[in-house]
Amino acid sequence: MGEDASAVPRDALRSLGITQGGIAIVGVELNGRDQLDTTELTLSSGQLMIRADDVRRYRLRTPVVPLQTIAGETFLPLSAVPGLRFSIDAARQVLRLSAPVDSFEDTALSGRPQERHTTSPVVPSAFLSYNLTVQQGTSGDSTRAVFLDMGGTNDRGTIENTMIVGNTIYGKGAVRLDTSFTHDDPGTMRRLSIGDGITRGSAWAPQVRFGGIRYGTEFSLQPSYLTFPTPSFAGRAALPSNVELYVNDVLGYQGAVGEGPFSLNQVPVVGGTGHVSLVVQDPLGVEQRIVSSFYVSTQMLRAGLSDFSIEGGAERLNYATASFDYQKPFVSGTYRRGLTPNLTVETHGEASTRSQSLGGGLSTTLANLGEMGGSVAVSDAPKVGVGTLYRAYLSRNDSHWLLSAVYQGATAKYRQIGDNQPSDRLRQVIQLNVGLTIKRWGSVNAALAQIKRGDDTTSRVISFNYSHELPRIGFLSAFVINSRATSSRSQTSVGLNFTANLGSRTSVSVTADQHNQRVDLQHLPPNDSGWGYRLSAGRGDVDQQEADLTYRNTAVEATAEVSHYQGQTTGRLLASGSFVVADGSVFAARQLMGGYALVDVDGQPGVDIYQDNRPIGTTDSKGRAIISQLRPYEENRISIEPDDLKIDATMVSETEVVTPMAHSAVRAHFRIKAGHAGSLIVHHADGTAIAPGTAVAFSADNDPSVVGFDGEIFVPALSSGLTVVVHEQAGDCAVSVPALPKDDLLPTVGPLVCRHKD
Q1: Backbone angles phi, psi at 9, to 5 degrees
Q2: What distance lies between CA 352 and its chain's CA centroid?
């Protein structure tokens, strides 16, 4: 072995034709393994040089040395590569390289690649969703109201308006709820909203309804994007090896690495504590195992990631009772950033005509122990003065137990947007939650929540819950709840609940405490079309009996309900659905939630449609349908039932993957070819079969094919009048497909005579 050209025998250099400035092509062995390719070598100033691109291709660390360009290629000295040793096998014309593990570049692996999905093209559409309620009681009370959600969408965004029309507990007439225009940019994960909305808020500032403009980060536009820090693991491989990562003893990643150091990032873990095992196995079966523990907080941001929101407008008051009640203009902003994998900082500021406030906070994970953080905010309000708010929290969650504690306090002078009345102001918040999992014996949980408001009222709830899953039987829980509020007596409920599944869509539940007993039997309607029902009977303080019947299809969901309570009987009718105008047609669909798709099966009526293998609808007489309730910004697999196609039709693909935006329509187009699969038997004029393997072309939309045995040709889309051209050495011949037999799902036609052109 050698470290420079002088250490390589001169005979070897001469036999390869390696001279000053000359170039030789040789094979390469790296650590005893043939790389199955070649590289170029040359001599310069007595040093053996190698093509620089090949050093990078072999993943060797590229030294920082002057490069030389010879015959249009860039070279560097072999002796400059850290730790590299080399020799030349003149007889085989092979360059032998030997490199230790540290001579290789790091290999970075990702257990969860951060790919950003591209949304499908938007089909311009308009929609109207409704939710109708008609109620009549024997006492004469009645309700007749409809909730309407209407709007339109195109590639620029969605405009939407919601309202309630009718008589409700708030009064009669029409009340506007929300009107807004929303533009989403999934590529940058940002959203612009103009109109009615809700502020982002912060850990210490509540969300507030307002009218105005909001712009900021929206991670939900990329649901698979990993926002929180995950543990990273590193190792070394002397040979190309297989890597497996086990998270809490479950395989979470499997891949391959080359020689050298490697790191595994974006590990697919869930929040809380856990342990991982990294197993590296080389081709010789030698295995190394790295075991580590971790703590992950899903509330923190990974290092370098930012999250912000800016809002400006006026507070919305008397929501659902007044259509246009905007007061108290304000601006607010929130900014969060992950500084390190263990530290996330946050700041939030507000300014309005009545107060200004500014605060900051941080969150950190402590090794593998848990998460903790705190925040402080200061406000200044005219005629009130300066107030302060402080908040601290601690959290730990693992597979056996959990603990979370939150304390928030504010002085009497602290103000922020939304706290227009003393009862809106939180003077003190105490939250405590403790849980324990007792393996196969179930889990227990205890919680305390206490709130003191600006009007000096205090409410407190203490709860204890035990839950246990009974395999193949059901789910059992026991609870104790104690609640107390200012000017009221303490109330305690002790009870049991048992729920059993009686099938895929049927369940029964029994609940009892010292004051009430209740039994519920429920049978959910199927996802596509069918009936469901619910029966409920209670006695005690709440002596109530209910029964309802639900029907659901692809266009509407309707429920008829009757209940008896405190001597009065009430009947109720509920109905929901939507209408969509898209591509020049009007479609009836179930209530729109998320995204929706216009499914087009090229004029094929009565074709069943599936979403992620669940029946979801059927095409109309024109072969089209609207499929609602798709998951926005995620891949949805839409498929059709091939057996529902006409006998003379063949589909190109039975699955389409669409990624809709929220409240937007996309197209799922299933292209259908004329004809269906079948076979032709083609002979020469003398009756001999066309030779197997002869190339075949078709006049219609079929891929080229070849002749099989006995002159048989399989045609994916066989139709009457199809021209088949056979490419023989003696010249092309052709045959035209005659009328096909009816009701034959896989016809075989022939023998047909293939005739040469004159």
Answers
A1: -55, 135
A2: 37
Say yes or no: 279 and 378 in one domain.
Answer: no
Structural element, H or E, at residue 10: helix 10-15
**714 and 726 in one domain?**
yes
> How does the average pLDDT of the chain come out, rounded?
86
Tell me, what CATH number does 282's domain have?
A: 2.60.40.3110
3-state secondary structure 338-403: EEECCEEEEEEEEEECCCEEEEEEEEEEECCCEEEEEEEEEEEECCCEEEEEEEEEEEEECCCEEE
Examine the domain organization and report whether 289 and 356 are in the same domain. no
Sequence-distant (6+) residues with CB within 8 A of 529 are 552, 553, 554
Is 690 in contact with 707 (CB distance < 8 Å)? yes
Query: Is the CB of residue 453 less than 8 Å from the CB of residue 422?
Result: yes
SS3 readout for 394-408: EEEECCCEEEEEEEE
Q: Is 727:697 a contact under the CB 8 Å cutoff?
A: yes
What's the structural domain count of the chain?
4
SS3 16: coil
Which one of 103, 131, 161 terminates a domain? 103
Rounded distance between C-alpha atoms, residue 53 and residue 62, angstroms: 10
In a domain, 689, yes or no: yes
* C-alpha to C-alpha distance for 582 and 580, rounded to whole angstroms: 6
Per residue in 48-88, pLDDT (tens digit) is 888 888 888 888 888 788 888 877 888 888 888 888 888 88
Which residues does 446 contact at the CB level (< 8 Å), separation at least 6? 433, 434, 435, 462, 463, 464, 465
Cβ neighbours of residue 688 under 8 Å, at least 6 residues apart?
A: none
Look at residues 334, 360, 391 and tell me which one is the last residue of a structural domain. 391
User: In this model, does residue 260 exceed pLDDT 70?
Assistant: yes
Identify the weakest region by mean pLDDT among 273-277, 626-630, 699-703. Answer: 699-703
Which tens digits make up the pLDDT trace of 587-637?
998 888 888 999 998 888 888 898 888 888 888 888 888 888 899 999 999
Q: What is the DSSP letter of 5?
A: G
Q: pTM above the 0.90 mark? A: no
Q: Which two tokens stand for residue 253?
A: 């990643």
CB 681 within 8 A of CB 712: yes
Structure tokens at 444: 């227990």
What's the CATH code of the domain at 731? 2.60.40.2070
Same domain, 268 and 335: no
Relative to beta strand 748-753, strand 676-683 is parallel
Strand order in the sheet with 233-237: 107-110, 260-265, 233-237
The model's pLDDT over 447-475, given as tens digits with 9 standing for 90+, comes to 999 999 988 899 999 999 999 988 888 89
Q: Which one, of 414, 434, 430, 433, lies nearest residue 422 by Cα?
A: 414
Smallest CA-to-CA distance from 178 within 163, 193, 167 is with 163
> Do 357 and 273 sit in the same domain of this protein?
no
**CATH at 17:** 3.10.20
Conformational region of residue 285, where left means phi above 0, alpha means psi within -120 to 50, and beta covers everything else: left
For residues 269 and 323, membership in a common domain is answered with no
- The SS3 call for residue 486 is coil
Its domain, for residue 723, covers 676-756
Model pLDDT for residues 191-216, shown as the tens digit of each residue: 999 999 999 888 899 899 999 999 99
Residue 358 lies in a domain: yes
Domain check: are 202 and 340 in the same one? yes
Statement to judge: residues 200 and 240 lie in one domain = no
